[in-house]
Amino acid sequence: MEKVELEGICVSYGEHMVLRDLSLKIEPGQIIGIVGPSGCGKTTIARAICGFIKPQQGTIKIDGKTMFSHKDRVDIPPEQRHIGVVFQDYAIWPHLSVYDNIAYPLKKRGLPKEEISPRVHYALEQVNMVAYEKYMPSQLSGGQQQRVAIARALTSSSDFLIMDEPITNLDAKLREQMLVEIRILQQRLGTTIIYITHDQEAAMQLCDKIVILAPDGSIAQIGSDEEIIRNPANRFVFQFIGVSNFIPVVIDDGKAFFDLEKKIPYKSHIPGKMTGTKAMLGIRPMDIVFDEDSPVRATVAQAIFLGNMYNYFVRLPGMEIRVQQIAISENAKSYSEGQEVGLAFLEERYFEREDA
Amino acid sequence: MFSRAINRDLAHLEGKGGFSLDRLMIILCYVALITVVILPVFMILYYAFWDGTKIDIAMFKQVIFQKSNIRSMWNTLVIGVFSTALATAVGVFFAWLLGRSDIPMKGLMKFLFSIPFMIPPFLAAMSWDMMFSGRGGYVNKALMSLFNLTKAPFNINSVAGIIVIEVVYYFPFVYMQVVSALERMDPTLEESARIAGASQLYVIRRITLPLTIPAISSGMLLVLITSLSNYGIPAMLGYSQSIFTLPTMIVELMNRAGGSFEGIRQSAALSIVLVFIVSIALLVQRRLLTHGRYDIIKGKSMRPMLIKLRGAKYPLLAFSLLFLSLIVVAPIVMIILVSFVKAYGLPFLAKNLTLANFRRIFVGNIMVRDSVKNSLFLAFSAASFCLLLGTMLAYVIYKVKPKGGTALEMMAVLPYSLPGTVMAIGCILAWSGAFFGITLYNTIWIILVAYIARYLSYVLKSSSAALQQVHGSLEEAARSCGASHMQTLKDVTLPLIKPAMISGFFLVFLPCMRELTTSILLYGPKSRTLGVAIYQLRINGQIAPAAALSVVTITLIIICNNIVKAITRDKKRG
Ligand SMILES: Nc1ncnc2c1ncn2[C@@H]1O[C@H](COP(=O)(O)OP(=O)(O)OP(=O)(O)O)[C@@H](O)[C@H]1O
Ligand SMILES: [Mg+2]
User: Fold this and answer.
1) Where do the domains of chain B lie?
2) Residue A352 CA: distances (Å) to CA of A90, A217, A234, B363
3) Right CATH number for B66-339 from 1.10.3720.10, 1.10.760.10, 3.30.260.10, 2.60.40.2950?
């Protein structure tokens, strides 16, 4: 049985339709990443699952039980959905101490006093905040507040959490550490977690499965990190998950050309992955190599040394592309600005071209 | 960990939206506002234009063109225009002096400015009357004997007298607006003009003044609106000479009518004229407030360049202190002195002093004791009701955001722009058996309803400002932690806006304690308020006891005021 099942969800704010006909199934015991650019509707999905907004259409089930159904006019209030939520802005209550913040869900569920205290301490241990139980939120740093928010969500429900950008406001090192801690926590408790972020790298590092949303709120792709990296469903996904170059190409007389200011032949046969006569070639900077024998000639416009790699901007007629080379490999060679180079393209992909 | 028990019935209910806390609150708000605000307003229109069987404009015309009414309209306008102009001049002068010059003792002067707000205007007027009344004011008498005059040199019981007292009482409105604009103004604008070689006067005239125009005009309109609808000052000073303004005329017509249909209709018609005049001023004010923003006024506070007064410094200081202490301290001293004198008019000599006035009002006078009790009861109940209703309204308007939210807000602030006299007439018309046979007239409840309507917007303002600071996710967090909507309000929302609610309570409590305008029309034999009791003592010639009761009132107000200050200061520290 699915942990969460969304079916045909539509949400609009006035005229502005944010989610249209969104369907999604989430297996229990996994961390699911929902990733997408800012404003695409990630928080809206979370708010619909929690019951803070009422979709105009669709069904939401948790553990097979209907939480919301437009058709059957069911709308379980948020307090009966038993979801632990970490809000994008923490939402720690400023008038309650850390202890009282975390104890609140237990009190509301009517637990006896003597059971509350050990559970609060357990939750505080999980997020390494035991020393701070008597603090008021205003005395905590942003990162500490975020931990309190996670602890509160955990006491609220240890089997289903929704985390909306839970670590965005931490510094890089703490972010790394929190990701590891969330993973450990999830494995220990078997929690199902919906992890919302616009940072695809964190999502790939943490999540079992990733849902990528397009800017219009539709699902662009669902899959494991490997599937998504290996097989991006479309140009948007490819571009969203990493630095990328796009070059228009055209087939002419059995050969493949870059379709720039002038046509540059780069392959003497029709690429196997390509369909039709026009396409958009997508390639990562790491998958372009310098090759003196290549027919594609270009000029180095800018060379930047990044410590472990070189980052080049290379000019083709009418376009500039990005090339990255590992600096520590034995045959690494540095190129200087203005130098003419040949380029070879490995691992390229083909996407639809708008003008095709 | 917890079972996901689902009560299907409840779910259906919530889904259908048949009954939810939000919906209940929306309905309550509408019911309350229609009852306290809309019914009275509607009744005024109804009585002014409906003669019982058909629409009747003739009576309205007749009222407007009646000579005594035209006279009172004229007086209202003259007093409004002149007191506004003079109050603006005085207010701007002091704002500039304290905000931009290097005059010493600014702290003392700022403190003096805050005092007039503590004394109700009708008490101040009464005290001025004791000093400058044409017939036996203490100062007049002293001057007469000093200079061997046969006639009193001043006569405060005149249009000019009313204007002067309104200026004295209202100029701090302008001062406050302008001084805060000056404090927020970017000083580099003035400095660069000075560096470019402009003279000091030129800078004031061409740079400082134009930039503070929005603040000046909004202070000015505030004075104008307050003056047009003020009852206390013209009633205290003008009544004995039959000088009426629109508000006092409305009350007079109402009293003369003695309950006759025609008489009530006449005061309703006159009320409409007053509302019309005030609305014009309000409309102008709204336009200015929305269009008059200059962005050289910045949010953060900066240290402005102070203008050196040089030789003029000490003469100006002496003048200011003298002026301020005359207008602020003199009336208080006068009231206190009179409250201890055996009979009004006797010189303040040791042999004429007594505590009898205080004894008389508390021991001998049931009316006075009742009035203290009534005012405390009314202020407390009105403040509590306003707190409940105002906070609920703020919650509905800013958090639930129903479709008719703007309508609710407009209804709630409507009485704020209606003169108190008009609101009171509306209450009489609505609650003398017109609806469901409910008759509140002559009871304390009609005063309570009027107070609630008048002061509701005070709580609405303070509570909604606080609510807008409470981010929605704080409430949502409580919901997903298992709290119901009601529990969320109790555990999260209300504690977070508590400080604003406390100050909202006192924002209503204090003006209710000193209210005269509506209570003078609404009181019954057993429901006199402090204001009414003082007013009646004085009208009946018991001026010394009136002064004693005033002293008691002012003391009560100061005590309450300090309680508020202590509470709000605690909140800031904690
Ligand atoms: N209360 C609201 N009223 C109107 N529009 C809203 C409201 N809340 C969100 N929106 C709109 O819905 C869209 C989706 O918002 P949402 O908060 O779900 O984005 P998000 O993906 O969480 O973005 P971010 O990564 O910046 O948090 C946005 O375009 C936003 O403008
Ligand atoms: Mg978001």
Assistant:
1) 22-44+355-574, 66-339
2) 41, 20, 8, 97
3) 1.10.3720.10
Question: A61: number of CA atoms within 13 Å, CB side?
Answer: 17
Nearest chain A Cα distance for residue B480, angstroms: 5
Q: Which value does ipTM take for this structure?
A: 0.83
Q: Which of B179, B209, B196 is nearest to B103 (CA)?
A: B179
Contact B476 A50 (CB under 8 A): yes
User: d(Cα A302, Cα A223) in Å, to the nearest integer?
Assistant: 36
Where residue A324 sits, what CATH number does that domain have?
2.40.50.140
Residues A45 and A79 in one domain: yes
Distance CA B469, CA A75 (A): 28
B482 and A156 in contact by Cβ < 8 A? yes
A259 and A233 housed in the same domain: no
Do A260 and A203 lie in one domain? The reply is no
Give the start-end residues of each E strand in A30-159. Answer: 31-35, 57-62, 65-69, 74-75, 84-86
Task: Profile chain A (356 residues) by mean pLDDT over runs of 10 residues.
Answer: 87 90 92 92 93 92 92 90 90 92 92 91 88 91 88 89 84 83 87 91 90 92 90 90 89 86 84 83 90 87 85 89 81 79 88 79
- Out of A63, A77, A94, name the one closest to residue B14 (CB): A77
Place of tokens 């045909």: A8
A109 touches chain B (CB under 8 A): yes
What H or E segment, with its residue span, contains residue A138? none
Q: How many beta-carbon contacts under 8 Å exist across A and B?
A: 95
| Secondary-structure class of domain B22-44+355-574 per CATH | mainly alpha
Please indicate if any CB of chain A lies within 8 Å of the CB of B53.
no
